[in-house]
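Final report, closing paragraph on structural work. Over the funding period we assembled a curated collection of sequence-structure pairs, and we close with a single example.
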Amino acid sequence: MSRPIAVITRNLINLVYPLHCAACKIALDPMNRSGICLSCEGKIKRNPKPYCLRCGRPVHSDGKLCEECERTSFAFDRAWSAYLYDGALKELIHLFKYRGKLALSGVLCGKICEFIDDTREIIDGVDLITFVPLHRGWLNEKEFNQSGILAAAISSKFRMPVSRLLEKRVNTRRQNELSRDERLTNLTGAFKPKDNALIGGANILLIDDVMTTGTTLNECAKTLKSAGAVEVRCLTLARGL
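Its predicted structure, as stored:
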């Protein structure tokens, strides 16, 4: 469709179904394809450097571990989170993840790829991308896995293979509904490897949408390591602090 016709078509559609920013609800230009306004997009806050050398939490000095990582052992080798789970981004992830607003995938995938562009060590030496799986029952209900969508976008952008290497065999309670102490034990033994042949000897980048306690990523990394992964790095779109 030529641009003039596309503009006319989108304007006509907007007369009947007006576009509004998913975060602040302000009216959008009919040609807006991201689903959010420029003001809200500008309020998405990068996770500030320097990062903890293990979990990616902001710390005061380069080359340091945060207090939690000094006293906690994680199965993953390194984790990064691109943005802070706050404000407009928190609302967008909620709409994407729980309300099925798949039109937001473009801007969210673009943001995580932008972060990788600025932090190339995340993917240097990685053999394979994977993502945190959903239990079959929850996946059937939702019909999509938000972490899988992010992983597919990274795979396409950086021309790296992606594969579902894990299965969630236990339909646990949702992490966001639990206290911190409950989160730490809720996922114990919940995952199993799906393809040991691909996992064995590989350096793997594990993708999820949000990191809070790191429990989900840790359980997935533990499973990947037990199946023979050499290194497991983690990347999330956002970090809850």
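Residues 180 and 213 are 7 Å apart (CA to CA). Residues 5-17 have pLDDT under 50 and may be disordered. We thank the funder for supporting this effort.
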